[in-house]
Design a protein that fits this description.
The structure holds 2 protein chains of 2 kinds. Chain A is α/β, with parallel strands linked by helices. Chain A contains 9 helices and 7 strands. Helix content of chain A is about 50%, strand content about 15%. The longest helix of chain B is centred in the N-terminal third of the chain and has 15 residues.
């Protein structure tokens, strides 16, 4: 029987790669997206081509009723939920002194409260199943700090704390909760950086290259697998050695 | 009431693995039936399914004894 995964923010970037990697490993995958239905449908088509079942669900992860509806859709469709990957995230970068309250709130709502709401919603079916895994996508900047990202860093550090707490609360029900902290991952965003900045960036990374979204997807697949059934409450850094 | 109590009792016995005699209306989940906080959350979930109802978090927090659960369920019927 195939396991069932829900990936938030699964229409592009790291979430997209995670959804596809899980499908390759035999999961049925529910793809949550905020706005880009076309991109979500593209991922769904690829998952179907891999022979797995999928649904796409539009939902704002910072809205409790939408999150509850999303998890209900997954359970109605597949009868269970084995894995939640909290990946949905946004950035609103600005220097602390210039950051607007609204920019701070938006990032905290999506990147931190969203993790809380999604975790809370899947806990019920997972408790009944007496099994489940939750993997939160944090960031190495949640460990190191990063100028211009007070909101994002606060949320990502918060996710690490929430991961540890959820792991402790839910361990007795065989629900395992871990985080992954990606370093610099090649995305549309890093493509736009100029060469000089990129070279500076690479000097910080012992492996001297940017990570790929699939590097993160493979780490998710490992933590989700039965090979990681004695790991909970941890933050796995996938950053080419950037932070030690 | 009697019927509700029997149904609640069955769930409590199954979930908390306690002797049937211990599950009285006065029995406190935490003090007498050795349930931890998470057990109580889980019991409330099972009661919701058994009685096909939703118990709001604010109401669930007031449920300390088996009798509290029975009374709440009957009050909603």
């Amino acid at each position: 029987m195939s396991k069932v995964a829900l990936v938030t923010g699964g229409s592009r970037g790291i979430g997209r790669e995670v959804a596809l990697e899980l499908a390759r490993r035999g999961y049925h995958v529910a793809i949550n997206y905020a706005g880009n239905e076309v991109k979500a449908q593209e991922v769904a088509s690829e998952i179907k081509a891999l022979g797995q079942q999928t649904i796409t669900i539009q939902a704002n992860v910072s809205d409790e009723s939408e999150v509850k509806g999303m998890v209900k859709s997954v359970v109605d469709q597949f009868g269970r939920i084995d894995l939640l990957v909290n990946n949905a995230g946004i950035t609103r970068d600005n220097l602390l002194m210039r950051m607007k309250e609204e920019e701070f709130d938006q990032v905290i709502n999506t990147n931190l409260k969203g993790v809380f709401l999604c975790t809370k919603a899947v806990t019920r079916p997972m408790m009944k199943q007496r099994s489940g895994k939750i993997i939160n996508i944090s960031s190495v900047v949640g460990i190191t700090g990063n100028p211009g990202q007070a909101n994002y860093v606060a949320a990502k550090a918060g996710v690490i704390g929430m991961t540890k707490t959820a792991a402790k609360e839910l361990a007795s029900r065989n629900i395992l909760v871990n985080a992954i902290a990606p370093g610099f991952i090649a995305t549309d965003m890093t493509d736009e950086l100029n060469d000089e900045l990129k070279a500076d960036l690479l000097k910080l990374i012992p492996l001297e290259r940017l990570g790929k979204a699939e590097d993160i997807a493979k780490a998710v697949a490992f933590l989700a697998s039965d090979d990681a059934n004695y790991i909970t409450g941890q933050t796995l850094q996938v950053d080419g050695g950037m932070v030690m | 009431m009697a019927d509700t109590f029997e149904r609640v009792k069955k769930i409590v016995v199954d979930r908390l693995d306690v002797e049937e005699e211990k599950v009285t209306l006065e029995a406190s989940f935490k003090d007498d039936l050795e349930a931890d906080s998470l057990d109580v959350v889980e019991l409330v979930m099972e009661l919701e399914d058994e009685f096909d109802m939703e118990i709001a978090d604010e109401e669930a927090e007031k449920i300390n004894t088996v009798g509290d659960a029975v009374n709440y369920i009957d009050s909603q019927a």
